[in-house]
Amino acid sequence: MASTNTLPYIGTLLQGPRNAITDVEGVSVGHQTLDDGAVQTGVTVIRPHAGDPFRDKVPAAAVVLNGFGKSVGLVQLAELGVLETPIALTNTFSVGTVATAQIRHCIAANPESGRSLPTVNPLVFECNDGFLNDIQQLAITEADYLQALDAAGPDFAQGSVGAGRGMSSFQLKGGIGSASRRVSSPCGEVHTVGALVLANYGRQPQLVLAGHAVGERLATQQATAECKEPEKGSIIIVVATDAPLDARQLRRLALRAGAGLARTGSVFGHGSGDIVLAFSTAYTVPDRVDRPMPTIAMVHDGLLDGLFQAAADSTEQAILHALWRATAVTGRDGNHRAALSEVLPPSSLFSSAEVHALP
Question: I need a surface site. Which of 49, 116, 170, 219 has the fewest CB within 10 A?
Fold first, then answer.
């Protein structure tokens, strides 16, 4: 597995101290990984803050770049512009189980949910890990969600962990990756943008790494029929920021993550589910009408370009991390995915001028 400081650095903006989505203050990430023979799957949870998002909702918006997906919660999110549970990532057939776990967790903390209080809107995103994971076993349980939630913290593993355990990208091992960038505005304020990806997409001949078109070279080396098949994968991108943005602006920010995705060779293929969620931690929206609404000045639209660049760069960097931090996995029916670092070490691709310690 390649170490962090042997990878090329995307863009010119400085990273946060962890180069992860958790550089946005208050955000935490946790995993539950199932690694048992044919069962290679898991759950990843992103908490927007340490409190109860049902009580203190977080402004958010989503963009569907290509809708070949089976997520829960997007309709209400689009209507109201807030999220009210942690964000959960898992495999396709486990969306219902994880959504139920989110509902039960909310009821335990808010016993009147669905009675005197509104029902909760669970938020679950998925990718299909069925190549490596025996998805028909429905192995994920509600307890797995709770364990991932309890494990959430500022420092977390990347690669073949959590929801990323069974994921594939570019006919190689995919998974969880994260990165962050910091943006200084003309007004002197500094904001952080962080991205986390669940990478399970891509046709190998199209792979581009830090501007290097390496896909055809890899496809020739591996010479598998799968490299000629149409796009069948997906990617979920979660973007967090501490910049004060409203739901309209967050939707614009989410869209720019697509630029980072496209740089890696994705064309948002017919069979790919490509979804981006963006949220802000700058303020929360109360659940009750008798609680005061926040009074906060939003970032002017004319000052959003730096945040847009940060979303694109941190997304591209997160995908790079997902690919190189992943370890090889063998799963269902002996299906195997090699790690990118095994077939294409960074030293064979990038010059010493391009590979440097992260700033």
Answer: 116
